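One thing: can you check what follows?
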Amino acid sequence: MTRTTTAHLFCSVNGVVEAPNLWQFDAFGPEEGQMMGRAISGVTDVVIGRKLWEEWSQFWQSPAANDPFGQFINPVRKHVVSGTLEGELGWNSTLVDADPAEYVRKLQQDGEGGIAVVGGIETTRSLFLAGVVDALTLTVHPAVTPEGRRLFDESVPVTRLRMVDSASTPAGNAVLTYSLRD
């Protein structure tokens, strides 16, 4: 049985996914927190790019004991996509030393629980376009930002998607879930 692989990013109305803390403002309420809790429940493995792994490994290894995300991210198995890291990584992390899409395909065939691609931008983009991410959720915040990187930039060819689910939240977010269209 193939394990499900998901990805979830916060997005501005104009498509920016980088540094949502700079434009998310008050558009993250209790409903968004519950949604994120549901998204990570059952996840046993995360795939993460090097830059984000380096940031999170410094921050999350000593979170407050009652922080729900810290309680999730610290024990979960982390698979780090990097062309520059070497050796033992610590923090329950394994270096992805093969083609990331092939690595995730093998991961999908082994073990139990869900797999979440938690970042970075290039890792999420390449794995989604390679067809190994079953569902990509974008929480579109009611904000426009003049700067920042987009998930789908000019390097991405025309790609057809299928909407899997949609919802809105009282904070004004549109929660849109897509898969690649067959």
